[in-house]
């Protein structure tokens, strides 16, 4: 889960796997795959950094990076 902040400064915890899109209007709108939309204070850049950190923490990004690095070493 990643932590985001609603406009009223309350915390919002979302499963980043369910994020379908991020829109930058004056505020950031997060749309989930189920159609729910949330307006948050964080920018899309910050949200994508948090998503990447989450994916690294559960080993998804590390596996893909490790595979491509190993292929490069053998060449």
From TrEMBL:
InterPro entries: SwrD-like. Keywords: Cell projection, Cilium, Flagellum. This is Flagellar protein FlbD. It comes from Alicyclobacillus cycloheptanicus.
